[in-house]
Design a protein that fits this description.
With 75 residues, the protein is α+β, with helices and mostly antiparallel strands. 12% of the residues lie in helices and 24% in strands. The protein has one helix and four strands. Strands 2-1-3-4 form a four-stranded mixed beta sheet, with no helix packed on it. The protein is globular and about 30 Å long.
Length: 75
């Protein structure tokens, strides 16, 4: 199952973006232009809990002025 990802616009609209990771079942990746002028990001953990992974941590630290959400249906 592929991780989904997207952005939160300045008007708080939620938009899906294409996951550009080479392994979308395990990672997510945006194009840099997808993140221009946004308020935040979101991505899913479809088969694992919404715990912060090391790649998530590095991505979040790369964009400290954005809000970030991880969405999971597992506990």
């Amino acid at each position: 199952m592929e991780e989904l990802c997207g952005i939160i616009t300045p008007t708080l609209q939620i938009q899906n973006k294409k996951n550009r990771a080479k392994d979308p079942a395990s990672f997510f990746e945006f194009r840099s232009e997808d993140l221009e002028g946004v308020r935040g990001t979101w991505h899913t953990h479809p088969t694992t809990p919404a715990n912060l992974s090391l790649p998530d941590y590095y991505f979040f630290m790369g964009y400290p002025n954005l809000i970030h959400f991880i969405i999971s249906s597992t506990t």
